[in-house]
């Protein structure tokens, strides 16, 4: 199933037949993804850079990576300043990779401008983003386009607008989203699009593999993998944000037992009711609870967003699973209130942004 | 019932028969209380000052008061540096007024040193503090001593250790705590102790009354009054603290409906189950919900404590009512989780204090 030989729409690229990839979002995750894809020598990347377009065009990115070492003044094959500018180039993309924050408004605005970049029968969408049900708005807008998503465990962040500090190995799971398809689309086509991407991505990790456990794994059940990551994101990430504390402080205080573990078990109950019980088994819960030491000073991504007055990925991390909980009649008293608290915090961020 | 003529143990003071009052706690509330009591010309105040003892002895307090105007270099009749020093003076007090934060550890340490200051048959305890069931530890330690408590609406705070900014008129309700009494103690004695204090306190407000609505009201049901104040303190005060936002921000955001009002209604349900339904009627709830404008920049006391890394009055404001909820079988999902979040925050404050 996962062999590139089965791809119907893609052929293995030769030097003159490189894959064309457009990467939207140039944060810690997106820039490393762009680097890895070019590093595969099987893809040309067009990076869409908004505010940092001129800076990157002038001096590129500086990357300090646990996987790839120190790379200075690195530029993607091609940089453009907007989706509209990318469309004007009239390239035909094999993959459009979306690595922005998964925020409803941002997703809507990307979708509104994405159509000219999609070549029917050729282009696939890759979503390297947090949360649940992130594929749904793309599948609704582009029902005939293969979509796959990645659950990424990479620890990579911007230290300034063009400098990346990539601290934890690039480990990800990728799997196809099997949305409603018409006759022209087979489940195999969707899967094969994901498989080709995984193949290319792993080629781009070749230099890392002797040193780290960097890897990109093709999975059949990406939704299960997304629920498993939510065990962490819907509990640690949200509670550290409400309380403005580190992972270690949450693990060491009374909230470990009164809030964290019950919140994680609520997510497990919802996932189980939705048919993903295997992905959130007791063993996995125990791993999640004990993976970080009580001395961890990690401040999760949502807390970092709050502290920097950036919008929170609240809808994909809590809103979407709570919608499933409601559909399935699963009680989630802790997560519901955490959602309400963070909605209030999000509201305040919006007010501040409006000032 | 409330006439001073009915007091068994107190006589109206003449110039040579002033009431002796010891005030513990010299924050915004305690200093104004000390001032008002001396201002009555019916009481001598001994103020117990710890860290600020020398400063006050040297230059007194500066008070800017909506009720009493600008008062500089004001000193109580007598200042001492500790409860032990007060005991060494071997005065016989009519009233010991406790105006510290209501914190379990602090209450325990005060109780441990209070006995030498209490003259059986003469001394009463006045608690000007927040929260529920604050009288219980004092009643357990001093079962034969009359105790009454005050629900104070004063807006008064320290701007530095000896400067008071008193912004909102001194309005309070005072009522006796009718704890277990033996034969020597009648309900009337307890009530009359409160009545005398109210009488003296109102005399001390005489200069304020033509200007403001400052007043001290004797009430029969102080427990009901404490529940009514909890409608505000257990909802606005706690939620603004968890969210680190002002009263206006809570009222303007989505949390107004999802968190604030339901939390207030949980307190009302508990109070009703405990027999204080009259004190938390729908009218009173509506008053509480609409009393502050959505533009209010007020940061409630618990939030100010959190921001200054001081311990929170969590047990008397949420712990005690939640204990009643448990006893009465009342469901309090929001308040229970708010308590857990604030317990985690309190734990962190303790950790920081220990560093």
UniProtKB/TrEMBL annotation, chains A, B:
Q: Which residues form the Ketopantoate reductase C-terminal domain?
A: 221-345
Which InterPro entries does the record match to this protein?
A: 6-PGluconate_DH-like_C_sf, 6PGD_dom2, ApbA, KPA_reductase, KPR-Related, KPR_N, NAD(P)-bd_dom_sf
Indicate yes or no for the key word ATP-binding: no
| GO terms for cellular component | cytoplasm
Residues annotated as domain Ketopantoate reductase N-terminal: 21-176
Which keywords, in A-to-Z order, does the entry hold?
NADP, Oxidoreductase
The protein's GO terms of the molecular function aspect are: 2-dehydropantoate 2-reductase activity
Q: Which GO terms describe its biological process?
A: pantothenate biosynthetic process
The UniProt entry's sequence similarity note says: Belongs to the ketopantoate reductase family.
Q: What is this protein called?
A: 2-dehydropantoate 2-reductase
